[in-house]
Design a protein that fits this description.
By secondary structure, the chain is mainly α. It has helices at residues 49-72, 80-93, 101-105, 109-118, 126-133, 143-154, 156-159, 164-185, 195-209, 213-225, 236-256, 288-295, 306-318, 322-326, 369-377, 389-402, 415-426, 431-438, 452-463; strands at residues 12-15, 18-24, 39-43, 333-334, 341-344, 363-366. The strands form two sheets. It has a three-stranded antiparallel β-sheet with strand order 1-2-3, with helices on one face. The protein starts with 11 loop residues before the first strand and ends in a 9-residue tail after the last helix.
């Protein structure tokens, strides 16, 4: 069968440097659709071809929907959201923005007349009349339903690169914000949310962040008389995350259904963040002596399962984030050639995606010392902890604590990454190279490879720690 080629610039004409949308009304509809001359001509008000194509797509879809309705003269059998979306597109095809009936009634009389005249034809479909006169109701949805729409239709491209667990964590944070709002206000339809409700929700967070004197006394009494644990207080940033998540969902949903200018009742409710004093890292680095004595020699790690021990030891000489090591695949471990290395990359596999923390996290790390020995043993990666770095961290931190392998109570597995950065400084490795090695962004455009793998390998060999091969 011969394939029909669709032009990327269909219906586009450039006149005086400005693009226009030109489209002929289908012959079979010429007697039905009396609004337009044989050819529709609309200015797209842009001289940029990419912007013109985007606007063309909107008009093209709107006219397709409208003309299909002219033929069928019946509304879509979809749900309320589909019907509302169809009404918005029909209104746009007729040259109007969608307004509810109440909003139409408040328009200047001239525009009301224009709307009525536009749909007076005997053969104008009911769906077009409803679209122009605003009689299609807004969908009655709750925040929980909005989240489903947001996940499937609005943020779907953003989520493509996330793994199953990454996507679950992303959704859990939004579900947490919604659950808190429902606890305070109740389950309400999103369109009925008022400023009074959102202000009440903010007051709820004020009490969690800064309890008054009476609440503090009650907390102290609870600590003394009951469980011995004081009720948890929350930070300003936690409250802002909750309010911000709901504000984002609200705005995204109404933009999605064509109500971009709708007033957001969550707007401007965030708390001012207190100025923070510079303080030392919460997770202090392990000292080099501790790493060599406790982890790279002796039998202290023998009780840890092999894969967890391998990941833990690899962190010492790579400075990678635990998730970056846990999610390595066979193709990411390169042992042939003059510079053995691992490739920290996102996965673009649609069946098994994985997203890195930041764009600058994508990098190659030469393998030296105990890290090279680890990957010679685990050439296929660590299937037990693939896409499950939280499980690795929990397992490892518990083992270190139970076996007195934490240098202080503030130390955790992640302290190996801070130790790696300190050791690079002591080895006089260039500051920009240090940032590139640990996946931090640099404050200028990147040129070249910062010296490349050979130079990085040379620097890492210089700081590599002595180890007993039997620890692997």
């Amino acid at each position: 069968m011969r394939r029909i080629k669709i032009s990327p610039d269909r219906y586009l004409h450039c006149r005086g440097g400005i693009y226009q949308y030109h489209r002929r009304v289908p012959a079979q509809l010429a007697l039905i659709d009396k609004r337009f001359p044989p050819i529709i001509r609309l200015s797209l008000e842009t001289d940029d071809i990419l912007t013109a194509r985007e606007k063309r797509n909107i008009y093209e879809q709107a006219h397709n929907d409208y003309w299909a309705a002219l033929i069928s003269d019946e509304c879509s059998a979809g749900d309320a959201l589909d019907r509302y979306g169809q009404a918005v597109r029909h209104a746009k095809a007729l040259g109007f923005s969608y307004r509810t009936a109440a909003e139409v009634a408040k328009l200047p009389i001239e525009e009301i007349v224009q709307r009525v005249v536009a749909v007076m034809g005997e053969k104008t479909p009911a769906t077009a009349v409803q679209a122009v006169l605003g009689t299609v109701d807004l969908p009655a949805v709750t925040f929980t339903e909005v989240l489903e729409i947001y996940e499937k239709m609005i943020a779907s491209t953003q989520l493509m690169g996330k793994s199953v667990r990454q996507r679950a964590r992303w959704k859990t944070k939004l579900e947490w914000a919604i659950a808190g709002f429902h606890d305070v206000i109740g389950v309400v339809e999103i369109g009925s949310i008022t400023r009074e409700m959102t202000t009440r929700y903010k007051e709820y967070w004020v009490k969690k962040i800064v309890p008054d004197v009476k609440d503090r006394k009650d907390q102290q009494a609870s600590k003394d008389q009951l469980s011995g644990e004081r009720p948890k207080l929350y930070s300003v940033s936690t409250g802002n995350r909750a309010i911000g998540a709901l504000s984002k969902l609200y705005k995204a949903y109404y933009t999605h259904i064509g109500q971009r200018d709708r007033q957001n009742p969550f707007a401007d409710l965030s708390f001012s963040e207190p100025k923070k004093k510079k303080r030392k890292a919460i997770r202090p680095p392990f000292s080099t002596g501790w790493i060599v004595e406790k982890f790279l020699h002796g039998s202290a790690l023998d009780g840890m399962n092999e894969e967890a021990r391998g990941i833990f030891l690899a962190l010492i000489e790579t400075g990678a984030r635990p998730a970056e090591i846990c999610n390595l695949r066979r193709d990411d471990i390169v042992l042939d050639g003059p510079v053995p290395h691992i490739r920290i990359r996102p996965s673009m596999d649609l069946d098994d995606p994985f997203e890195l923390k930041t764009g600058s996290s994508e990098r190659d790390i030469p393998l030296v010392g105990v890290a090279l020995k680890v990957f010679q043993k685990f050439q296929d990666g660590f299937p037990r902890y693939y896409d499950n770095s939280n499980s690795f961290s929990a397992t490892c931190n518990k083992y270190l604590e139970e076996n007195n392998l934490l240098e202080t109570e503030k130390h955790v597995v992640y302290s190996l990454r801070h130790a790696f950065e300190d050791r690079m400084k002591n080895a006089k490795i260039d500051a920009e190279v240090r940032k590139m090695m640990v996946g931090h962004s640099i404050d200028r455009p990147e040129y070249g490879e910062g010296g490349g793998l050979r130079l990085w390998q040379k620097g890492l060999k210089r700081m590599a720690l002595p180890f007993d091969p039997r620890v692997v």
